[in-house]
Amino acid sequence: MRIIYDCTGADQGAEAVLAGIQSYLEDHSLEGILLGLKEELEPLLPKYPEVAKRFRSEYVTEVILNTDEPAFAIRRKKDSAIVKGMRLLKEGAADGFISAGSTGGLLAGGLFLLGRLPNVSRAVLPVYLPSSTGGFLLLDSGANMDCTPEQLLSFGKLGTVYAREVLGIDDPKVALLNVGAEPGKGNEQVKKAFELFSNAPFHFIGNMEARDAFFKDVDVLVTDGFAGNVMLKNTEGVAMFVTGVFHRALEKFGADDETFLKKSGGALREVKKLLDYSEYGGAPLLGLKAPVIKAHGSSDSTAFKNATRQLKNFLDQEVISKFQQEG
Amino acid sequence: MRIIYDCTGADQGAEAVLAGIQSYLEDHSLEGILLGLKEELEPLLPKYPEVAKRFRSEYVTEVILNTDEPAFAIRRKKDSAIVKGMRLLKEGAADGFISAGSTGGLLAGGLFLLGRLPNVSRAVLPVYLPSSTGGFLLLDSGANMDCTPEQLLSFGKLGTVYAREVLGIDDPKVALLNVGAEPGKGNEQVKKAFELFSNAPFHFIGNMEARDAFFKDVDVLVTDGFAGNVMLKNTEGVAMFVTGVFHRALEKFGADDETFLKKSGGALREVKKLLDYSEYGGAPLLGLKAPVIKAHGSSDSTAFKNATRQLKNFLDQEVISKFQQEG
CB within 10 Å: which end of chain B, N or C, has fewer? Predict the structure, then answer.
């Protein structure tokens, strides 16, 4: 497997990427290209000799920031890891690309430089949220603001393939995010999508309210990037708010916060996942011609290792060719 | 003050309404009309002699259910409390209407039977959510699915008047729910609304992400009824989910749930509010020609008393005429 890594996008710097690759190399073979700023990457390489041996370094001089306007940045910052990475991926220099850089930059780069699959009208960014029945894939989580019912249908197909092939869920259950469970509910977009979904080749279980997604059995929850992003960020906000209230309650109760966390152990792990939903691995961009994984900005070496595993799974299951058949 | 009460819509039955009115009557004067099913209401009246003395009872034979299609139900169930209540309100038989019945039924009844204010294009349903800076009014919370930017502007105006006059907030801060804080973010609807809001007669503070609404200083958060309802129900779902996780953690920690709740006291009250957002009073329908308060289906006598207080405030502050001036 050959992977391109963006070493300019992680909050923790290029070392988190190198340490993640080195950890992966302990059990697996891997080679590829490191894209980084010379002054940052070059001094680190002697510390990671296995990585330096198997990877070629290419230096860039620019970084696309979260505050940059994505489409503009892709045109102007040609010597950035995102632009170079997408170009190299398109040329076949590697099998996949992992970056913790700007989500917007990756999407714009993916669309303009790498390109969509011919049967897919939009690339989509799913996010996996935990729930009391395990968890569900919410897509789109913010890549596409205005979507047609046909595009929502495409998200349902891409989400189904991804849930089945990468998450290992047999016959994934797909629902439409809506304001009520009954058919006929919702805005014009969702009402039309409901009809398309009812005749779709995937396992459609109907409309679902945001509340129920955390308690009912659903694997893929489809919505446009506006409502999806509202739901995602609201999830984070409410989880933070409720956690804060509980911590104050614990204080009043007289329980030491640290002792509580230690004794209650794994019980709070699910809340941590809600608070930092993409820490665990990364979010794939679905619908592009080659696999691109967006790692969380705050990713550490473990997160980069997990993103690498995720990419391997993506390649092993031939997800791209299944998208072409079923997308 | 003369109020019409729907005694058919509360999960706890007509007695919750009567007990709420009786409790309000201990400190205030009040008269009006009770709309109820004869077999339920008539036997209760002797238990509430003060209420029976000041209120006229009118019996109905039908109830509009949450599962009924609202516009259809309004036309077909003419002998329901919602239809009768709206008609009586329109005729001037009372100053306001309180019902815990079907939200859709009340909205349809409000629009078709009572009517909108001439300068308002849609009636809107706000909901008040707690936050770490106090709380904020989210509107629309689900009455209007597809909204134009101009309608969002109208929601901003109605929300401003309501927050100032009824909630007592000086110069309420209004934000647009969006996927990012920067101008230029969002779907076409929100981008256009941003321009309108920038020149609006209220205190517009910009775009706001759902996450930030729980931590930043905002009084009125404007969105369409689809995204608003997703946010509202997601808030409930995540709060329930996180609360469940904490309860399991408490168990593992060895703290008795009840003792914990008692000792930590008021600290958890905010979570309860998130879980049952409209328990405290009710949600007003803004933009109609007369005040209508939608009480929560699970309202008890305290909730009906609070809804009555809210309606008094609404009338005292002459909110309807301010809507006409500023709406």
Answer: N
CA dihedral A76, A78, A82, A84 (to 10 degrees): 160
Question: Rounded to an integer, what distance in angstroms lies between the CA atom of residue A139 and that of residue A277?
Answer: 13
Q: What are phi and psi of A85, to 5 degrees?
A: -60, -45
ipTM of the complex: 0.90
Structure tokens that stand for B31 in this block: 């008269």
β-strand partners of A292: A97, A285
Q: What are the distances in angstroms from CA B130 to CA A2, B77, B175, B178? A: 50, 37, 16, 19
Question: What residue in A sits closest to B213 (Cα-Cα)?
Answer: A237
Residue B186 to residues A54, A144, A191, A229, A269: CA-CA distances in angstroms?
Answer: 42, 9, 22, 10, 32
- Which tokens go with A322? 């299944």
pTM: 0.90
Mean per-residue pLDDT, A5-22: 95
Joined tokens for residue A5: 């890594």
pLDDT, tens digit, 9 for 90 and up, residues A175-198: 999 999 988 899 999 999 999 999
Token couple for B286: 């803004």
CA distance B245 to chain A (A): 6
Strands B282-285 and B292-295: antiparallel
Give B198's strand partners. Answer: none
Instruction: Give the Cα-Cα-Cα angle A99, A101, A107 (nearest 5 degrees).
Output: 85
Mutation target vs A (from B67, B140, B233; most A CBs, 10 A cutoff): B233
- Smallest Cα distance from A177 to chain B, Å: 8
CA B235 – CA A241 distance, rounded (Å) = 10
Option in A213, A223, A260 nearest B253 (CB): A260
Residues B272 and A326: their CA atoms lie apart, in Å, by 45
- Per-residue pLDDT reduced to its tens digit, B184-197: 899 999 999 999 99
Q: Report the amino acid identity of residue B108.
A: A
A to B CB pairs, distance under 8 Å: 176
Number of H helices, E strands in chain B: 13, 11
The backbone torsions φ and ψ at residue B286, rounded to the nearest 5 degrees and listed phi first, read: -95, 135
